[in-house]
Specification:
This protein is mainly beta.
Length: 417
């Protein structure tokens, strides 16, 4: 191994520094300047590492640090000067981001070159601009990786994801009312599962931390059998952690799951403190949410809106004690011939059910309610009693467990005359 001990200032302009065949770039008490469109490459056989020590630091003003080995920050600073527009490319196989000093990356991109695993060890990290996962796993372990850029597009991926254990998290800052993806999954603590989270906050600044816990929540202190009606038990296979670290406004929280593979999918539940039990939350369920995501057979999600209870950060899919059922046909013919003249929704397990019908322009044309004895029915007319034309209509059916807790399902029904 060859150690490159640099002069007080190394300035790279309109060129490339390449260290080949397992050399190591070691920066001790110095500054490396990388100007726009230039590259520092540390490549070849192991170790091919890049280490910053003492008061050393890299100022990357639009260039690229191309690394096949490990990143090691034993310096007294952030490792990189910020704000700057440079990139760190991890282009090797299995690579590690070492502490003990936390690193503040400009932008970080992961590439699969024989191994798709990049692992954080010994320190937290922050990213000024962009995190590009591509098809790699960023394993934070018990560390936190925070993307400081509040742009909803600051994290991109093809099939990559972020995994964490214990106190580890993926963090994101937000500053607008838009959907922020937390692409979380795991293949270390259990079978591979990709179960992302989306958070839609207000336009005020917030900071959120998320983890997908691919374990029985009971093993981490949240007894899945400690429940409040109507819940029977929380998911024994995984749960999610969604923390609001900064900010105070309510959010829309969407948790994705696999409708075909996951067994607990009646409602979303929250671990309530100080009751220390899983309780049902108002849940909207979409059981067929488009093209299957990574590792899923049938992508689906559960969503709760206006959520502002962060007494604990723990959420889990759950079964309810009295199994509720909603059966919805997808076509009917209200032509008065005595056959299939009404849109009938059968159900059980609710104290009441509400049905709303919308036309293709989103206009509410009919609304009805029914008590615990179903079915609820629509006869193909507007609220004013006028026949609707042949077309596809959107229905939203909401079943109430209690006066203020419900689950919701939406879809389309076609009227044929």
């Amino acid at each position: 191994m060859k150690l490159m001990r640099l002069r007080p200032v190394l300035w790279l302009s309109a060129g490339i520094i390449r260290l080949l065949y397992g050399q190591e770039l070691y920066i001790l008490n110095e500054t490396v300047f990388i100007s726009n469109q230039d590259t520092v490459s540390v490549i070849g056989a192991p170790p091919g590492d890049l280490q910053v020590d003492g008061t050393g630091i890299i100022e990357n003003d639009g260039g690229v640090v191309w690394l096949t080995g490990d990143w090691i920050n034993t310096s007294s600073g952030d490792g990189f000067v910020t704000p700057r527009n440079g990139w760190l490319y991890l282009v090797g196989g299995y690579q590690r981001l070492f502490g003990p000093t936390p690193t503040y990356y400009n932008s970080l991109a992961l590439f699969n070159n024989g191994s798709d695993l990049k692992e954080m060890i010994g320190a937290n990290g922050r990213i000024q601009n962009f995190l590009v996962l591509n098809d790699c796993e960023l394993r934070t372990n018990t560390n936190i990786m925070t993307v400081e850029n509040p742009d909803p597009a600051a994290i991109t991926r093809t099939s990559g994801f972020v995994s964490s254990t214990g106190s580890g998290r993926l963090g994101r800052r937000t500053d607008r009312s838009a959907s922020y993806l937390f692409p979380v999954g795991d293949r270390q603590l259990g079978p591979f599962r990709y179960r992302p989270v989306e958070i839609t906050p207000s336009a005020l600044p917030h900071l959120f931390h998320v983890r997908f816990a691919n374990v029985d929540p009971t093993s981490e202190g949240y007894d899945r059998l400690s429940v409040q009606d109507p819940i029977q038990e929380a998911n024994e296979f995984f749960y999610h952690i969604a923390e609001r670290i900064q900010g105070a406004d309510p959010i829309t929280l969407r948790i994705w799951y696999d409708e075909a593979a996951d067994e607990y999918k009646d409602t979303l539940s929250h671990w309530e403190v100080p009751a220390n039990q899983w309780q049902a939350v108002n849940t909207i369920i979409n059981r067929a949410a488009g093209i299957p995501q990574t590792g899923m057979t049938q992508s689906a999600y559960m969503e709760t809106q206006g959520w502002n209870n962060f007494s604990s950060p723990n959420f889990a899919l759950a079964r309810i004690r009295k199994k509720w059922v909603i059966y919805v046909p997808n076509v009917f013919s209200p032509n008065g011939d005595g056959s299939n003249d009404e849109f009938l929704i059968y159900y059980q397990g609710f104290i009441r059910v509400e049905l709303r019908i919308y036309d293709r322009w989103g206009l509410l044309i009919w609304r009805g309610e029914q008590g615990p004895e179903g079915p609820i029915r629509w006869n193909g007319r507007t609220q004013k009693g006028e026949d609707v034309p042949e077309d596809a209509y959107v229905f939203v059916v909401r079943g109430y467990f209690t006066s203020d807790k419900y689950t919701e399902r939406a879809g389309t029904v076609t009227v044929i005359r």
